[in-house]
User: What shape does this take?
Amino acid sequence: MTRRTLMQLPVASLGALPPSAAPASAAQPEGAAARRAGGKPPHILFILVDQMTPFMTSPYGQRAAITPNLERLARSGVVFENAYCNAPLCVPSRMSMFAGRLPNAIEVWDNASELKAEIPTMMHYLRRAGYETVVSGKTHFIGPDQYHGFTERLTPCIYPTHFAFLHPWSKGPYWIQGTSIQVGLARLGPSEVNGQIVFDELAFSRAMEKLRDHALRAKDHPLFLNVSFTQPHDPYCAPKKYLEMYRSAEIPMPKPHDDIRKLSPTYEWVRIVHGLDRETPSPEKVREARRCYLAACTWLDQKVGLLLDELERLGLAQATMVVFTSDHGDMLGEKGQWFKRMYLEWSARVPLIVRYPGRISAGKRVKALASLVDLMPTFAEGAGIEVQTPVDGRSLMPFMDGRQDGRDREVIGDYCGEGTIEPIRMVRRGDFKYIAVNGHAPQLYDLNKDPDETVNMAGRKEYAEVEKSLRTRAEKDWDAPALERQVMASQADRDFLRSIPGYMNPNLWKPEVKSPPFPDDYGWK
Ligand SMILES: [Ca+2]
Assistant: This one.
């Protein structure tokens, strides 16, 4: 299907208002500022992984998964059972998370989109409040600002910092080899040394070093440490030791499904991008991919365990808020789909586990809807900081300490990356998920009756009222045709810059990476 033929379909969504954001004054209840002993704000260890669906981890009910350290974190903290990313793609998800604002509000569309240096992030707020804000691992910042409020970067990024990953909608949907099943599912099996593992080992070891350095020097100021791993992102492979752990395991397979295009013909776009119109992976391949994915999750779980051990060994555990999440999920063959770029559950849901000793209950499970834009105001409240600039998220503290149940919460998602050629908006509220695609019929899923999203209820009489209400919400601050023009203009600008011979090179926007400390730095004489 070409872009042109799809454009001729009726326009479903005509919002009127520009994207806007409410001030965050409601995020900080009085007297909520949490303190370490002596009135100091907590350290924050923010562990971020890439493309981990909660459905392949044991705290979220996957019995085949060997993830004991996530369980350990869950037992000592709070598990959010219904957490979402706001965009199912690295850069828009991460930038919106750091800023606490929806992707459209900060105009971050895709994996080649720059977050403006003027936009305040969680790191800026924490830094202003006296935190040392450090990142070890993947940042995926695009453009000249490679810090966005971090005081220090301990590693480079594993992805380009420029416009390499731009995929203009004007070309219609096309096969993106690097992110297709032809690459992602090509190297299944054991791998001891590959780019992802080497990078994650580096991110891990530099993070451990940072924790020790902070403890050794008995630094008085609080530390915000973002440890950011690139696994279990495809290409799926894992060291033999971890694959062996699943050798005789029964690998959970995707649920039986219909052709996804029956839910919405627009899923044809992402099928083309991922190369699924060229090839259907065999059940053996699907099983092996899932075995590798589970092994990568166990690899990460072990690193989480070592980080938690180190906090304890250094005497920092009681003074540290620990947050574990992912930037989005992975379809892993559900509905015949792979990776992300869609708002169906396996792609859009993320694990979210928070431990905060002395402040929130241990072993609690929260049903309230949450999303990654909530993290910025959550960190702020946890650290006793008042957010003065606009945010779209809301602090999750009231749900963790039992002040509120959050039954009335909603989650908004905005997607303008590749895998679509039209703006997409998701509204998740109550039992329902509504997905609007500009110019196309919407989707409505009743997740209570149909948790696997097998039937699109949009247009059914018995759902007319809820559909209308969710459509109204979706269109409230979403002018999709105007948005489409804006996104495509940005794509054209970046495509032009990218076409300059030699311009897109690794040194264009290269972050300065802090080297490990020398013995003299510790005052050894
Ligand atoms: Ca990602």
Summary: The domain at 23-399 is CATH 3.40.720.10 (Alkaline Phosphatase, subunit A). The chain has one domain: 23-399. The CA atoms of residues 208 and 307 lie 7 Å apart. The first helix runs from residue 3 to 7.
